[in-house]
Amino acid sequence: MERKICIYCASSNKVASKHFEATDILATELVKHGITAVYGGGSAGLMGRLANTMLAQGGKVVGVLPRFMEKVEWGHKGLTELILVEDMHERKKLLINEVDAVVALPGGCGTLEELMEVITLKRLGKFTKPIIILNLDGFYTPLVELLDKMIEEKFMRPEHRSIWTVVNRPEEILPAIESAPEWSEDKINIAAV
């Protein structure tokens, strides 16, 4: 059965080269393992790099792009499949539909919003697959500390730490997916604190 992984990543072309290099490593690993990437459909920044690297190696890439972004030509033109949707809400829903995992690369407010939404959905038992956060050079350390603070101050339970896995290098992403703790729909029973 075809495996699909949703990748949250940024559209900025101005980020440090280390982020592009990490994206290349992940893209190559996905192709090597025959995994299809599902991502936001953009042609710039880490989005474009992910797609271009995978496509150049014969990989499959599915983009999900709101129509208003297509109108300003932000969409990637060479994807395996480009799905146009009406708005950001529909995009986020389709990005995680029937995927085997979610990976968050470093990114901006859009990436953060997507990541927090899927963490919330997993807490509620509406999404049950692994969520991997690439904490390249400590990028997500403040977020992980904030999540720990939420647990410490009883806004979340200690068990909720099992919702996500933090890795420091792109080579660790696929092994982290394989070893992620099981999660089920009945976890809604521990959603409340």
From TrEMBL:
<protein>
    <recommendedName>
        <fullName>Cytokinin riboside 5'-monophosphate phosphoribohydrolase</fullName>
        <ecNumber>3.2.2.n1</ecNumber>
    </recommendedName>
</protein>
<dbReference type="GO" id="GO:0005829">
    <property type="term" value="C:cytosol"/>
</dbReference>
<keyword id="KW-0378">Hydrolase</keyword>
<dbReference type="Pfam" id="PF03641">
    <property type="entry name" value="Lysine_decarbox"/>
</dbReference>
<keyword id="KW-0203">Cytokinin biosynthesis</keyword>
<dbReference type="InterPro" id="IPR005269">
    <property type="entry name" value="LOG"/>
</dbReference>
<dbReference type="InterPro" id="IPR031100">
    <property type="entry name" value="LOG_fam"/>
</dbReference>
<dbReference type="GO" id="GO:0009691">
    <property type="term" value="P:cytokinin biosynthetic process"/>
</dbReference>
<comment type="similarity">
    <text>Belongs to the LOG family.</text>
</comment>
<dbReference type="GO" id="GO:0008714">
    <property type="term" value="F:AMP nucleosidase activity"/>
</dbReference>
